[in-house]
Amino acid sequence: MRLLPTTIAAIIAASAISMPAAQANDQLAANICNYVQADDKNRLRKKLKENRVKLRNIYTGISCNGDSILRLAMNSGANSVGTFVAKRLSVSDLQAAEGDGQTISQWAEANGHGASEIAAAIKERTGG
Q1: pTM attached to this predicted model
Q2: Spatial separation of the C-alpha atoms in residues 48 and 61, rounded to whole Å
Q3: Radius of gyration of the chain from Cα atoms?
């Protein structure tokens, strides 16, 4: 008979704990997008370190206004942050097709960013 109240209490406690974590993840993603857009590499590095996350582990899960972090960096002219991100990602992440079916290199060429510092850093990492 005491099992039911204990189970209900455990479910309520678990849901209360998981909600702030989701809000924290949303806030982290928003901060990352803001730092990328502002080309603030130092604050980006600090935020990642504070939250004990690696960029390569969260890159695919973050979307900034529908764009990946690298696409946002190229559109914003954030060369410092963009090259930092490109150097931190795995080659497979850099060569993977994104939501529209294009890799970051293909997208950069198609949108006039093929000569940017970020595109050069990506090509250097991927060997292309």
Answers
A1: 0.78
A2: 14
A3: 19
One-letter amino acid of 38: A
* Tens-digit pLDDT string for the chain (128 aa): 566 656 555 566 555 444 445 555 788 899 999 999 999 999 999 999 999 999 999 998 899 988 999 999 999 999 999 999 999 999 999 999 888 889 999 999 999 988 999 999 999 998 86
Q: Which long-range contacts (CB under 8 A, 24 or more apart) does 106-111 make?
A: 107/71, 108/74, 111/74
User: CA angle, 121 as apex, 57 and 82 as ends, to 5°?
Assistant: 55
The number of helices, as runs of H, and strands, as runs of E, in the chain is 8, 0
Burial 62-80 (b: 16+ CB within 10 A, else e): bebeebbbbbbbbbbebbb
